[in-house]
Design brief:
The chain has about 130 residues and is mainly β. The protein has two domains: about 30 residues, no CATH class; about 100 residues, Gamma-B Crystallin, domain 1. Helix content is about 10%, strand content about 30%. β4 and β5 form a beta hairpin. It is globular, with a radius of gyration of 16 Å. Bound molecules: calcium ion (CA).
């Protein structure tokens, strides 16, 4: 009974989601399944920026997993990104629709016609 109360209080406080994952204050969707990391390997990593030119001033988010929806705080706001590790899909619509595949590198979305401030979902493809 005591343990149940603690879980209930944690849920009520928003400290954990019902699935047991730590809740994200930005209200992003649940993590999407991806290959498990081997112990001798680092996780895939992508860094999202709201500004062009990898400027962290207006927002920076380091991600290590996919999201079928990147959340209201980040939806349609990404203007540049850096893939540190892994091959990813970045998508203009939620649920991985209208995507392009990218590998490690730095990308200013002004260079992709019509992509600035459109990304809504991201997915790790391989790493
Ligand atoms: Ca979008």
């Amino acid at each position: 009974m005591k343990r149940l109360s603690i879980v209930f209080l944690a849920l009520a406080a928003g400290a954990v989601s019902e699935s047991g994952f730590a809740a994200d204050s930005a209200g992003k969707g649940p993590p999407v399944a991806m290959p498990l990391a081997k112990s001798d390997r680092e996780l895939p990593e992508m860094v999202l920026y709201k500004d062009h030119g990898y400027n962290p001033d207006q927002g920076i988010w380091v991600v290590n997993m996919g999201y079928s929806f990147i959340g209201a705080e980040w939806n349609d706001t990404v203007s540049s990104l850096v893939v540190v590790r892994g091959n990813w899909r970045v998508c203009r619509d939620p649920n991985f629709a209208n995507c392009r595949s990218i590998g490690p590198g730095a990308y200013d979305l002004r260079d992709w016609s019509g992509w600035d401030n459109t990304i809504s979902s991201i997915q790790v493809v391989s790493y």
